[in-house]
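Hi support team,

I've been running sequence recovery on a batch of backbones for a student project. Most finish fine, but this one hangs at about 90% for roughly twenty minutes before it completes. I'm not sure whether the input is malformed or the queue is just slow. I've pasted the structure tokens below so you can try to reproduce it. Let me know if you need the job ID as well.

Thanks,
M.K.
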């Protein structure tokens, strides 16, 4: 462990117990509620650990494995920053759970402005050393400390909004890098708190079944704008809404043309669009052309389309392109997740876990990637459809299961998959008339 300015006479986590997340051992305060499934208040005086973020940390391990193995970050050493590190569990999981050919190339830094965090990380690295790679700590306010060197990978996982960290993080990235960003200001991003949404993200989100997807797209649009300010362009790798937080991972490249073209990737989402709006969306390539007469529940429109900002049907400005990368998502299979992150039962386990606890952790790992590798084939699709909306929209029937809709659409010759989303839903690249057709078939067999 190398130390850069870390130094602590602060309290650590008080009475603690050994805990495991994925394949990595850590320590958590005995006061920590390990069953927590939602947001967790900042707890001054002890290092923060939220078990509800374990899925985000698992996906981070898998994404890093994919990106590095595909050579997207070159072939030499990789400097990765766990920017708001708290207990350093994410950084330690990268080093401990990535395959050796990847982790041995990593120089990982865990940063925090809380000295007790860094002290804890150093202690944990001594008690449970990682097999490969190198772990450093960096003390200070990330908004400036991130600029002390260049990074290939930066993770930003703040309390609340990530907006204030974006500009300097993007400037500190290598010519080609990955930025992972969490946001827990979900009431703002999903449109419930309109003023903070406008203040922080300059957008509006319609409160409906796709509000979480719109929130993700508003966040991506803000990252894309920050990147463009620094002559960079982004491509989303993975965008996930997970219980109480949003998480977006993007590839960032220093390419001036991409940065100049940013407006082509931004636009509006319109609920219950008019015929004219649908025609424009088709003309702009945001919907497939369709011989049917029915209008879809929603469509995207480019930024240049003249919309009325007060129109309650409209969300945006938001990212109108795909919110994930097909290959990256495909790599997140259940098998791969278990291979990298699934702990195997051992007797005399240091955490004192029995077989059932190991099994529960393996189930959690599987849940964290549910549907992602299947959805990969259709992440380019123009329709994300929450099935609960369909009966109301068509004025008949009950909500079909996403699986049945997917099967019907596939039978009709188009791609579709159940989505990893906050609502029972599926994604498809089919024209709207095919979705109508699939719904009709299911409704008629249910009579
Ligand atoms: C939500 S926690 C991070 C959780 C962690 N990434 C994980 O996976 O467990 C946020 C952390 O950021 C630290 N922090 C907050 N503002 C900061 C800033 N401006 N610079 C550096 N660290 C900061 C806090 O001390 C806290 O440890």
């Amino acid at each position: 462990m190398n130390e850069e300015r870390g130094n602590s006479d602060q309290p650590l986590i008080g009475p603690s117990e050994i805990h495991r997340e994925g394949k990595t051992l850590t320590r958590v305060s005995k006061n920590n509620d390990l069953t927590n499934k939602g947001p967790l208040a900042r707890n001054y005086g002890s290092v923060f650990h939220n078990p509800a973020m374990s899925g985000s940390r698992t996906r981070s391990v898998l994404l890093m494995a994919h990106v590095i193995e595909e050579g997207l970050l070159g072939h030499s050493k990789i400097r990765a920053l766990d920017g708001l590190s708290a207990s350093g569990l994410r950084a330690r999981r990268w080093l401990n759970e990535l395959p050796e050919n990847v982790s041995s190339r990593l120089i990982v830094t865990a940063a925090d402005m809380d000295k007790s965090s860094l002290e804890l990380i150093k202690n944990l690295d001594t008690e449970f050393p990682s097999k490969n790679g190198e772990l450093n700590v960096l003390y200070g306010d990330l908004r400036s400390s991130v600029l002390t060197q260049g990074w290939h990978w930066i993770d930003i996982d703040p309390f609340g909004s990530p907006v204030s960290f974006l500009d300097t993080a993007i400037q500190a990235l290598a010519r080609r890098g990955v930025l992972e960003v969490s946001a827990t200001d979900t009431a703002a991003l999903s449109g419930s708190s309109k003023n903070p949404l406008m203040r922080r993200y300059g957008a509006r989100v319609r409160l409906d079944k796709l509000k979480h997807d719109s929130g993700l797209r508003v966040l991506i649009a803000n990252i894309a704008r920050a990147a463009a300010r620094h002559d960079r362009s982004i491509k989303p790798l993975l965008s996930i809404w997970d219980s109480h937080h949003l998480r977006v991972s993007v590839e960032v490249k220093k390419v001036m043309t991409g940065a100049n073209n940013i407006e082509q990737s931004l636009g509006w989402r319109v609920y219950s669009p008019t015929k004219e709006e649908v025609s424009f969306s088709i003309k702009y390539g945001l919907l497939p052309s369709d011989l049917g007469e029915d209008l879809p529940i929603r469509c995207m429109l480019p930024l240049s389309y003249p919309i009325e900002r007060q129109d309650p049907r409209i969300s945006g400005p938001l990212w109108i392109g795909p919110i994930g990368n097909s290959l990256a998502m495909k790599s997140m299979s259940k098998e791969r997740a278990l291979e990298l992150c699934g702990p195997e039962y051992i007797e005399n386990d240091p955490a004192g876990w029995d077989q059932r606890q190991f099994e529960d952790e393996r189930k959690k790992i599987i849940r964290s990637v549910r549907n992602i590798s299947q959805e990969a084939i259709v992440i380019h699709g123009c329709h994300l459809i929450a099935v609960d909306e369909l009966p109301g929209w068509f004025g008949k029937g009950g909500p079909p299961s996403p699986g049945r809709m997917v099967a019907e659409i596939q039978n009709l010759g188009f791609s579709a998959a159940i989505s990893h989303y906050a609502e029972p839903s599926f994604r498809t690249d089919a024209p709207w008339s095919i979705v109508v057709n699939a719904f009709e078939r299911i409704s008629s067999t249910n009579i």
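--
Follow-up from support: It reproduced on our side and the slowdown came from queue contention, not your input. The two ends are 67 Å apart (CA to CA). No action needed from you.
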